[in-house]
Each structure stands twice: as structure tokens, then as C-alpha cells.
Specification:
It is built from ten helices and 15 strands. The chain is α+β, with helices and mostly antiparallel strands and about 350 residues long. It has three domains: about 5-95, no CATH class; about 105-210, no CATH class; about 220-345, Alpha-Beta Plaits, CATH 3.30.70. Helix 4 packs across helix 5 (about 165-170) and helix 4 (about 145-160) crosses helix 6 (about 190-205). The longest helix has 24 residues, at about 5-25.
């Protein structure tokens, strides 16, 4: 049964009834009790998802942050879930599918770091679209192992510029002593609490995508194969969720992403475009893109699914998607029946 869409709707309806109680508990600093209530609501829709509740200093006052640990499938599911927050609740609540930029402090083994204390020298690599940082070896890092220093810095960077910005743009990190004396090619040091504003400005100046506009991060891939059989003939593509693609052909115990799709009661499917042998690569791409646009139109219109992968093969093109209810999948099947070169595969 495919009913992730309905499960999300049911959660939002129940949350609309109970949000006042959650807000009261949060105001009384009873986060554990509030989290237990929310866990009971969350488990039927996003089982095994970690989350945290936060009281914010300004409106919206309350935040539910889902922890996806940079797993692309968890991020896709969390994004859809968060996007369904009812409009009236957005005045007081934020639902986040990745860690946002909050500029908070971090404590490890009794030592607390504030973002204003960590100084960095930023270098923007315009060719690779990367932010490389030289970081002052603050005295508070003394006595910690190198791997602990990098762990602390990575967590604080995620809190300073946001988890998505770190994943999309962070390049190299290097600790240096005496960075306050550095001025290389006119580059002055900044503190972590100033880094987000600088990154947004540099993205604007350089024509990079602003971190706030990044939802998913696409990965290009290529394979070498002369096979012509379904799903084994893929030669290249772009994906928002490579783990699902890479799990194909493995045993059930080696398919954690497919297991998660089943657990949330969604479906992983593909529209297959069969190519006449004489088509050029450009013509194959055109045929697949036509199918891609129509699948995207149906999913977007019904707000019940997401495109995750587009691929070219030796004999087929593929438009892979997650679908969140039976009626939307049936709408795609109905459209596919109008073209003898198309078929729908259910992949998990």
C-alpha cells in the first residue's frame, strides 16, 4: 500500500490539534515530554527519523528539525514532510529538513566554543565552486586530538552557515596559528558568525546558487556497459539519490534505502523509454526529457511525489521517481498506456 501522502496529511491534521499543547510544554522547558508526544505522532509517518525541538528567540518561535545525517533519501522524504506544514502554523512553527544556520555555541568535554571566537580566512574557488577555509587554532582547541578539532569545526560550520551550504560548497579546511596577522591578496579574516553573510554575498557576486535556494544536490554519474537489458544498460545520468540506484541488484539485507522507502509506505518507480536502435544520443535525450516533463507535471500537480533520477542507457531512457499515493501512480500508468514506447517499473 502506497500511503505516505495520506500519512503526512494525517500527521499535519493531528499536529494542528496538538501544537498548542506542545508550545506550552516547550515554554515550560519540558522538552522531553513534548518530544515524547511528537514521537508518537512521527512514528507512523517517518519511522526511525531523529528530530529535535527548539525554542527560537524570534518568530516563528518553535522549530522541528529532522536529522537526516546528509542521507539523500532521508532528506527527500523530510523535505516533502516539511513542505506540507499548514500555512496557518507557519506563523509560529518552522519545520526544517536540514540543520539551518543558527549561529549557536557548542560544548565538548566541558569546553564551550562561540562562533564569534573562531576566526577564518575564506578563499573562494570560482572554478570548482568551493569555499576553502584557513582556520585560526584557537587556544580552546589545545589538548584536543586533530580529528576532534575538525569534528568541532564541522559542527560549528554547519550551525554557522547551515548544513546544506556546508555540503554544497565547503572545500578544504586547514588550521593555522596566528591567522589574525594574515592578509593574503586582500583577504581579511572573519568570525564564523559573519561567514554566512559573506557566503551569501559572494554567491550573489559570483553567480553561484544561493544556499537558501538549494533543496537537493544532484550527482552526475557514468557507467561503462554494452548491455541492452532493462536497468543494466545505464551509461550516464544525474541523480538526487544515488544510494537507491546503487542498491539495485543487491540482496534485501543490502538495501537500506529501499527498506526505508517501504517503511514510510512510498514507492520507488521508473518510467522507461524504449529507443529505436537508430536514434542518436541527442534524440534519445529528447525522448527521455519529454517523459521526464510529463512525469514531473503529474507529480507536481498532485503534490504526491518527487523526481530523483534521470538516466540514459544503450537501449532505454529512465525517469526514476518516488510516488506517495496509489492514485498518483495510477495517473502515471494511465498516461504511459498512451505511448507503446513507455512502461512503468516498480523498483523496490
Amino acid at each position: 500500500m502506497i500511503q505516505f501522502h495520506n500519512n503526512v496529511e494525517n500527521f499535519m491534521a493531528e499536529f494542528s490539534q496538538q501544537h498548542s499543547k506542545l508550545e506550552s510544554l516547550i515554554e515550560q522547558n519540558q522538552f522531553e515530554q513534548a518530544s515524547q508526544i511528537l514521537l508518537k505522532l512521527m512514528d507512523p509517518v517517518l519511522p526511525s527519523f531523529a528530530f529535535r525541538l527548539v525554542r527560537l528567540p524570534e518568530k516563528p518561535q518553535y522549530m522541528l528539525e529532522l536529522t537526516t545525517t546528509l542521507d539523500p533519501l532521508r532528506r527527500i522524504l523530510a523535505f516533502y514532510f516539511c513542505s506540507q506544514l499548514p500555512e496557518p502554523l507557519k506563523k509560529t512553527w518552522r519545520f526544517e529538513y536540514s540543520h539551518p544556520a543558527l549561529n549557536g555555541s557548542f560544548t565538548h568535554e566541558g569546553v564551550t566554543w562561540n562562533p564569534s571566537e573562531i576566526q577564518v580566512l575564506p578563499f573562494f574557488d570560482n572554478k570548482r565552486h568551493r569555499l576553502n577555509l584557513k582556520v585560526e587554532k584557537n587556544p580552546k582547541f589545545k589538548g584536543f586530538r586533530e580529528e576532534d578539532c575538525f569534528m568541532i569545526l564541522y559542527i560549528m560550520l554547519s550551525d554557522a552557515i547551515g548544513e546544506t551550504a556546508v555540503e554544497a560548497y565547503l572545500g578544504s579546511l586547514q588550521f593555522l596559528d596566528g591567522i589574525e596577522r594574515w592578509k593574503t591578496r586582500g583577504k581579511a579574516r572573519v568570525s564564523l558568525d559573519q561567514l554566512a553573510a559573506l557566503l551569501h554575498q559572494e554567491c550573489h557576486n559570483r553567480g553561484w546558487i544561493d544556499p537558501d535556494d538549494i533543496v537537493f544536490i544532484a550527482k552526475n554519474y557514468t557507467y561503462r556497459t554494452r548491455k541492452l537489458t532493462l536497468r543494466q544498460d545505464i551509461t550516464e545520468g544525474v541523480s538526487f539519490c544515488l544510494p537507491l540506484l546503487n542498491e539495485e541488484g543487491r540482496s534485501a539485507s543490502q538495501k537500506p534505502s529501499a527498506a526505508l522507502v517501504n517503511a514510510v509506505q512510498a514507492a520507488y518507480c521508473s518510467v522507461v523509454v524504449s529507443y529505436p536502435p537508430a536514434l542518436s544520443k541527442a534524440e534519445k535525450t529528447e525522448q527521455r526529457e519529454k517523459a521526464e516533463k510529463e512525469v514531473n507535471r503529474i507529480l507536481s500537480q498532485r503534490k504526491s511525489g518527487i523526481l530523483i533520477n534521470a538516466a540514459l542507457g544503450n537501449a532505454h531512457g529512465y525517469v526514476d521517481f518516488l510516488v506517495f499515493d496509489e492514485s498518483t501512480l495510477e495517473a502515471i500508468r494511465t498516461w504511459v498506456k498512451t505511448d507503446p514506447h513507455l512502461e512503468v517499473l516498480e523498483l523496490q
